[in-house]
Amino acid sequence: MPLDNTLKAQNGFVRYFKENMGTLIGLLIMCVILSFTTNGVFYSQRNLVNVLRQVSSNACLAFGMTFAIITGGIDLSVGSILALSGTLSAGFIVNSGFSVQQAVIAAIVIGTCLGLFNGFVIAKTTIPPFIVTLAMMQIARGAAYIYSNGQPIRAMIPEYQVIGTGYLGPIPYPVIYMAVFLIICVVLLSKTRFGRHVYAVGGNDKAAIFSGVNVARTKMLVYTMSGFLAAFTGVVLCARMASGQPTAGQSFEMDAIAATVLGGTSMSGGVGKIGSTMIGVLIIGVLNNGLNLLGLNSFWQQIAKGIVILLAVYVDMLKKRRK
Amino acid sequence: MSDNILLEMKHIHKKFPGVYALKDVNFELRAGEVHALLGENGAGKSTLIKCLAGIYIPEEGEVIVKGQSHIMKSVADSQAHGISVIHQELCLVPYLSIAENMFLGRERNIAGVIKRGQENEEAKKMLSRLGLDFDPNTLIKDLSIAQQQMVEIAKALSVKADILVMDEPTASLTDKETEVLFETMRQLKAEGIGIIYISHRMSELFAITDRVTIMRDGQYVGTVNTRETTNDQLIAMMVGRELTQLYFKDEVKPGKVVIEVKDLVSPPFVNGVSFAVREGEIVGMSGLVGAGRSETAHCIFGIDGNYTGQILIDGKPVHIRSVRQAMQNGIAMVPENRKEEGLVLINSVGYNLTLTVLHEIFRGRPLGNSRMENDTITRYIQELAIKTPSAEQLAENLSGGNQQKIVIAKWLATKPKLLILDEPTRGVDVGARAEIYGFMNELAKQGVAILMISSDLPEVINMSDRVLVMHEGKITANLGKNELSQEIIMSFATGTGGKVNAA
Ligand SMILES: Nc1ncnc2c1ncn2[C@@H]1O[C@H](COP(=O)(O)OP(=O)(O)OP(=O)(O)O)[C@@H](O)[C@H]1O
Ligand SMILES: [Mg+2]
Q1: Residue B42's domain spans which residues?
Q2: In this structure, are B145 and B196 located in the same domain?
Q3: Domain check: are B269 and B136 in the same one?
C-alpha cells in the first residue's frame, strides 16, 4: 500500500504543476528577474520571510474569496469586516476592559456574524452577492469609523501585539496562520462534502438543488467562513500595528479578487482551487516586493498589478481554448 | 404483475402565475410496472413529476407513498421516500466528474470527508451496467449530450429507489442507447421497482410500458393498458381530436441551387464535406451521434470560423466567419440545444422572438420601432401557436415544445433563404411536431432551402426530398426519395454501407 500512496501523492503534485503551469512559470520568471536586478537582496532570508508575512493577510482573504467566487458569488465586504474586527479588538481591550483573549474572540465572533448575515441574505433572497456584500462593505466600514470616532485606537499591550508580531523559530505568526488556513481550506474544498457542494452550487445550482444539496446552507457557510477569515486577519493586522485602525484593509477585497482570478478561478463559478489562488497571492506579493526593492513607488505597483492580471487571465483563457 | 400499489397521487392542483398547470390530476403506480405519462408539450407532466420530487409543493391534493400519505417538502425528503428522478433538463454540474455528479447530495463520506475511491468504484460499476466504459473521473463538460444523458440515468439508478421517474430520458439518445436503457428497465421491473416513464416517442411506449396515463392541459384524461390500446387512440386522447396525419410533405419542384459546399474541412469532426441544397428542397442529414452533422452546420452558420473549403451562396463564393455574416447571406439555424444555444431563458418570450431582428426594429430609430416589435411578436405567437399566457412570460417557464417553437420563430423572422434545422423536433409532442412539419412544408413551397439534421429516422424519411448520410466527418451517401429506408440509412451511418452514390 505505501507504494500506492506515494504514487497518488505524486500524481497530485504532478497535476498541481500541470494545472498551474502558466502562473508558476510567471512567478518563476519574476523571481529570476528579481535575483538579477536586486543584487540578491530579494533572496535574503529576511526578505523572503518578509514577502510571506506581507502576503499572509491577502492570502487569508483570498481563500475565503475563492470559496465565494466558486459558488458563483463574490465577497466585497472582507476589507471592511477586517477593519471593523481589528478596531473592535483594540477597542474592547482599551475601552471596555476586556482581557486580550475576550477581546479577540468577541471581535472575531462579530466579524464572523457579519459574514453569516451576508450568507443569510444571499441564501434566502435573490439579491445578488455583489449587492449584498457591497452593502455590507459600507455598513462595516461605517461601523468601524463610528466605533473609533475615526481615530486609530492605540493598544500597546504586549500580550495583544504578539498575535501579530510573534515568531515561531524564524517564522512570523501571520505566516503560520496562513499556512494553517491554507491546509484547512485545501482539505475543505477538495476532500469534503462541503467542498463538493461549493463546486456544485457554482457549477449548476439547479443540478445541486435537484440532487438534494442544501444550497442555502452551503452559501451561508461560505460567506460565514469568508467573514471569519476577514475578522481574524483584521485582528492580526491591528495587533501587529498595536492599534485598531478603522482605515485598515481599504481595497483589500480587490487584491483578494485579483489573486483568486490570477489563480484561474472562474468569475462565473464552478471552477477554482485554493492551491492556485495561493500562487496568485504570491505573484501579487512578489510583484509588490520586487517593485519596492527596485524603488518604484506604489502607484507604479498598481499599474503593474493591473497589467499582470490582464495578461495572466488572457494566457489562462488561451490555454483553456486550446483544449 | 402484482397489484401492489407503490404510489398514488390524488386530486393534485398546482398553479403558477398565469398558468393553472395541474388541475385535479390523478396518478397511480404499481410495483414492477412501467407506467407512461403522456401528454402534449405543456400538459403538465414535468410539473407533476416535480411535485413528486419535492421541487414544487402542490396547493392541493394527496400523495400516498407505500400506503403513507405524505407531501414531499424537499428533494432530500423525496429521496428519503425512495424516489429517484431523472429530470427533463440535464441536471449535471459541468466541472465536476462523472462520479462526483453521481453522488452529489449523497456523498460517500466519513465525517464529511469524501471517500473518493469508493465513489469511483461504485460509479464504474453503475456505468458498466449501462454498457458505458467511461473513466468516472471524466468531467461532465467533456461529454456529449447523449453521454451526459446516460450519466444522468446511471446517477438515478445508483440511488436505491423503488420509485424511479424518467422524464424524457431518450430525447437525445440514439436507438442503440435506448435499447440498453430498456434492457435495464426490464431488469428493474423484475426487481419490483415501479417506473414512471415520459416520452414523446410513441413507439417507445409500446415497447416498454404496461400502462399509459394521459394528460391534457393540466388535466387527467385517463389511464389505459398499453396492450389494449392503439397509437391512434392514445394520440386522440392526448390531443383531444383525431390527428389524421403527422407528416406533411408536398412535392415541390426544386429551383436553383441556394447553397453549395465544397470540401469543407474542420478537424476533428468535419473531414471533407460537399453537398448542395436547392430552393424548395428539404434535405435530410442523418448519421450517428458524433458523425459531424452539427459541426458541419456550425461551419456554414459561422459559429466555427476556422474551416477550410468553399461555401457558395447563389453561386457566389462567400466568406462566413461569423454568425452575422451567415445571417447577411440569408442563412438561419435552429440549434440542437435550445436551452443553451437557442434561447435566453431568463428573458421573456417576446424578447427572444425579436432577438434576431433587432437590427430591423432599431433601423433608423434609436429607441426602436415598438409597433414593428409588437407586430412581430404577436404574429409569430399566433402563426406558430405558441402556448404562453403572454409575450412577457419568461422563456424558461414554457414547456419544451413551446420553447422550440420560439427558436424556430425567431429564425423565421429573419426570412432566410436557407434554414438549417438541427434536431427540430427533439422533445416535441406529436401535435406540435405535426405543426412544425407543416411549417417546413410551407417554407419549402415558398422556395426556402431546408437542411434538416435529425436522428429521428421516420422524420428524415418522411420529410426529406433527399438524405445525406454522414459517417466520421464525411458524407457516405446521398439518397434520393425512392431509395430511403431505415436499413439503408443506418448501414451508411455506421460506415458499413456500399460505395458513395453519385450525387
Ligand atoms: N416555474 C414555472 N412558472 C410558470 N409556469 C410554469 C413553470 N413551470 C411550468 N410552467 C407551465 O406549466 C405548464 C406545464 O409545464 P410542464 O413543463 O409540466 O409541461 P410538460 O408536460 O412537461 O411538457 P413537455 O412535454 O414540453 O416537457 C406549461 O404551460 C408551462 O409553461
Ligand atoms: Mg416536460
Answers
A1: 5-239
A2: yes
A3: no
Instruction: Find out whether B169 and B152 touch, Cβ atoms under 8 Å.
Output: yes
Please give the span between the terminal C-alpha atoms of chain B, in angstroms, as a whole number: 54
Tell me: cis bond preceding B169? Omega within 30 of 0 counts: no
pLDDT in tens, B285-335: 998 877 899 999 999 999 888 899 999 999 999 989 999 899 999 999 999
> Which stretches of chain A are DSSP H helices?
2-19, 21-37, 45-70, 78-96, 100-124, 129-148, 158-165, 173-191, 193-203, 205-210, 215-241, 252-262, 274-293, 298-322
Give the CATH number of domain A49-289+296-315; options: 2.60.40, 3.30.300, 1.10.3470, 1.20.1300: 1.10.3470
**Domain identity same for B191 and B317:** no
Judged by average pLDDT, the poorest of B5-19, B100-114, B341-355, B489-503 is B489-503
pTM of the entire structure?
0.82
Residue B503: exposure state from Cβ atoms within 10 A (0-12, 13-18, ≥19): exposed
B107/A194 touch (CB, cutoff 8 Å), yes or no: no
- Dist CA B174 CA B309 (whole Å): 30
Distances (CA, A) of A1 to A14, A267, B35, B122: 20, 40, 49, 21
Mean pLDDT of B199-204: 90
Helix (H, G, I), strand (E, B) or coil at B449: strand
Asked if B151 and B18 sit in the same domain, the reply is yes
Mean pLDDT of A136-150: 97
Q: Given the C-alpha cell 443553451, which residue does it identify?
A: B340
Alpha-carbon gap, residue B170 to B146, rounded angstroms: 9
Those residues with Cβ within 8 angstroms of residue A23's Cβ, 6 or more apart along the chain or in another chain: A262, A263, A264, A276, A279, A280, A283, A312
Grid coordinates representing B24 are 385535479
Chain B nearest-CA distance from A140, in A, is 33
Sign of CA dihedral B191, B196, B199, B204: positive
Residues B358, B311 within the same domain: yes
d(CA B429, nearest CA chain A) in Å = 25
Listed by start position, the domains of chain A span: 49-289+296-315
Averaged pLDDT score across all residues of chain A: 91
Asked if A192 is an interface residue toward chain B (Cβ–Cβ < 8 A), one would say yes
Q: Which of B161, B133, B157 is nearest to B147 (CA)?
A: B133
CATH number of the domain where residue B321 is located: 3.40.50.300
Do B347 and B405 sit in the same domain of this protein? yes
For ion ligand 2, residues whose CB falls within 5 Å:
B 46, 88
Domain membership flag for residue B122:
yes
Number of separate domains in chain B: 2
Torsion sign (Cα): A203, A207, A211, A213: positive
- Is the domain of B209 the same as that of B301? no
Interface predicted TM-score (ipTM) = 0.82
Q: Do B109 and A193 touch (CB under 8 A)?
A: yes
Burial of B17 (C-beta count, 10 Å sphere; 0-12/13-18/19+): exposed
Range with lowest mean pLDDT among A77-81, A115-119, B385-389, B460-464: B385-389
Nearest residue by C-alpha to atom 22 in ligand 1: B46
Contact list in B for residue A209 (CB cut-off 8 A) is: 55, 75
